[in-house]
Write a structure and sequence with these properties.
The chain is of the alpha+beta class. It has 2 domains: about 60 residues, Winged helix-like DNA-binding domain superfamily/Winged helix DNA-binding domain (Arc Repressor Mutant, subunit A, Orthogonal Bundle), CATH 1.10.10.10; about 190 residues, Beta-Lactamase. The chain contains 8 helices and 8 strands; from the N terminus they run αααββαβββαααβββα. The strands form 2 sheets. Strands 5-4-3-8-7-6 form a 6-stranded antiparallel sheet. A two-stranded antiparallel ribbon has the order 1-2. A hairpin with a 5-residue loop joins strand 7 and strand 8. The N and C termini lie far apart (about 55 Å). The N terminus and C terminus are likely disordered.
Length: about 270
């Protein structure tokens, strides 16, 4: 078990306090003010500021010597705002998916080896939820996660999964790198992914990618539900076209240009 590092945690806390104070005071704070308000010696504050400046989180005005937040925060906030914007724009699509299927609809993004559920819509008659906003799950064990992975080159997959054995959540979870690579190739070709009780026993899902103006996956949507309602036949024959249509429509709202990228075969006539 890894040992906690009290000094490291304390230092991190001090760095955050400095950043928060600068942000709360119009990005124009002097060293002496920071030292006084935070109750830290000027030398300590200066050391933290120098470290934060070296990685772009803090800048110093060359005339006044005062400190402000660096452009690195703009990059981070832009990523967060983009996700928030996707959530807002996706809500009507998720509601439509619920109306069409009677099942839970999800909006999901990828974070490394995991996926994060950032928005959802549920039918009023929902008894049991298979997902929640903020939930994380291993990418290789979910339909949405496999969609993201299917767009990565082979060397990135190998870098992500350096072990040939993958964590197994259920008896159906893909547990070897070789099987995962074959599954990803199939998903890339067909344009959608299924989760057949790979993440949770008793739950299945159908997922489709949401792409931007150059065809890159930026998020994914899915329909999830219990195995007694999401039979394999229903998933393929009924739900796949509906989820693909929802993903296609949402992609257009987020910048996808149907004149440049071919519309999925499964939804040409929807």
């Amino acid at each position: 078990m890894a040992q906690k590092n009290p000094n490291g945690i304390q230092s991190l806390g001090r760095a955050f306090r400095i950043l928060e104070y600068i942000g709360d005071h119009d990005n124009d704070v002097s060293l002496s003010t920071l030292s006084k308000k935070l109750g830290l010696p000027p030398s300590t504050v200066h050391r933290f500021l120098a470290s934060l400046m070296s990685i772009g989180y803090v800048i110093q005005d060359e005339f006044t010597g005062h400190y402000g937040l660096g452009l690195k925060f703009l990059s981070l906030s832009s990523s967060i705002l983009a996700t928030l914007d996707e959530r807002r724009i996706a809500q009507p699509t998720l509601a439509w998916l619920v109306e069409q299927t009677g099942e839970t609809a999800n909006l999901v993004v990828r974070d490394g080896l995991e996926v994060v559920y950032v928005e959802k819509a549920e039918p009023k008659s929902m008894v049991r939820a298979f997902s929640r906003i903020g939930k994380r799950a291993p990418a290789h064990a979910t339909g949405v996660g496999k969609l993201f992975l299917s767009q990565l080159p082979a060397y990135e997959i190998a870098d992500l999964y350096q072990s040939s054995e993958l964590p197994q959540l259920t008896p159906n979870t893909i547990s070897t790198l070789d099987r995962l690579v074959k599954e990803l190739a199939r998903i890339q070709q067909q344009g959608y992914a299924l989760d057949l009780e790979e993440c949770e026993v008793g739950a299945r899902c159908v997922a489709a990618p949401v792409v931007n103006h150059v065809g890159k996956i930026i998020c994914a949507i899915s329909i999830s539900g219990p195995t007694n309602r999401l039979t394999k036949e229903r998933m393929v024959r009924e739900l796949v076209p509906i989820v693909q249509k929802g993903a296609y429509d949402l992609s257009q709202k987020l910048g996808y240009d149907h004149r440049q990228i071919r519309k999925p075969d499964a939804i040409k006539n929807t």
